[in-house]
Each structure stands twice: as C-alpha cells, then as structure tokens.
C-alpha cells in the first residue's frame, strides 16, 4: 500500500485544489443504504451525512478523511447510475457560463451546498457528465494514495481531439498526447502535472452509456479486490490486467455504476 497523502492548508485542513483539478467524486443511486454497504465492505469506507440540497447524501470517510460522496436519486429520476468527477473552480458561475458558451450544457445549478461550497453539474458537447465544485468549508477529497481513494479520472469518448479543446478552453488544461497509431489518448495537465485523461475509443464506446467519465480507485491487490467485489454483488467488466501504471480492472457496482480498480505500480 502506498503512503497516505494529504496536503496541509490553513487551520490544519487540506489545501484548496487548483482550478481544473478533479477534487471530488460523487455517485447518485436509488438504494443509498445498500450502496453504502457495498462500498463499505469493498473499500472500508465509513459514512457521515453531507449536504442535503439534492436529496439524501452521505460522505465516505477513510480514517476520518473524506474521500467520496454518495447520494440518493429521487424515485422518479431514471438517470444513468455513474460516478461523477467534480472539477475545481474558483467561480462556479463563471465556469458554468463558459461551459455553455463552449457547447456544453448545465443540467443542475449553480447552487449552494449549504456551507460546504457551490456546485454545478454539466455535460460536455459529447454528453459526458461532470461536476464543477467551488470550495468553501468542504475542499474535496482529503486523502490519496491508499486503498479506497480515487487515483485517476478518465473520460471515455469517441475521439479525444475535439472534446479536449472544450475542456482546455473551460478549465485551462495543457495536453500531452500519447503518440501511437492505434491508441487515441490525451493526458490533461495543470502546471505540468497530469490530472486526468481522455481516451478516444471510437465505436467501442458503450452504446448503453455513451461518452462518460470513469474513476479509478486505488486498491492494495487488484485480483483480491475483484474477487471481493464479485462476492458483494458487483460485476467484473474487464478482469485485472497489467498496464504501464499498474494492474487494472474495470468493474461495476450492483446498480451498474462503472469504475476501475488500480493496484498502482510500486
């Protein structure tokens, strides 16, 4: 297991995330209690109540540090069940307007989440959903580098170049393409630091899902985590395999939310 990392900020809290950095991941589901049981058993998460502006919502904690959020969808909302990354912003209203001007849409907000901060939920021109977070009391994910914490966020879409221009204009990213004749991939950078990826998969983009963001969660042992996930009622979409960054599996929870497990290369 890698060493836990948290960055110090004013008053002993963790530092504010640079605009454009994925700072939080959140999942909206129909069965909040059963979803907590699943992820609690898979990652060792504990839960405490969070802002209720969008309905019942809990924050997942590891060793007392907030790492992710899970909310309950209204019974009449039949939206795709998916993990959604939130990208940091110093002014969510300005960012939301820029999203609209660049061909994206804003479906929720901007609105205040109590004293925690201000948020909006939008989608890029290809339809992939993401959140925007302007931090106040809640800065975002407070722990990285240990099992059960978000490790990476990646946009799975038809092709990388055109949608990358949208994210670069809205959030100010630089890009670093992977030079390969048969692999369409861009890494998004902030101040030279990789923060997210865009993977163009062409016609392999899932028809039932379309373009979407996928979150990678760190695990100590990918094979063991996949076995545990299956025992808990999850689904293995792509079994563990070695990659340049570690051993990776693509999975889904019992309600169908896709995510990846990564045992990072040591």
From TrEMBL:
<dbReference type="InterPro" id="IPR037523">
    <property type="entry name" value="VOC_core"/>
</dbReference>
<dbReference type="InterPro" id="IPR029068">
    <property type="entry name" value="Glyas_Bleomycin-R_OHBP_Dase"/>
</dbReference>
<feature type="domain" description="VOC">
    <location>
        <begin position="149"/>
        <end position="264"/>
    </location>
</feature>
<dbReference type="InterPro" id="IPR041581">
    <property type="entry name" value="Glyoxalase_6"/>
</dbReference>
<dbReference type="InterPro" id="IPR052164">
    <property type="entry name" value="Anthracycline_SecMetBiosynth"/>
</dbReference>
<protein>
    <submittedName>
        <fullName>VOC family protein</fullName>
    </submittedName>
</protein>
<dbReference type="Pfam" id="PF18029">
    <property type="entry name" value="Glyoxalase_6"/>
</dbReference>
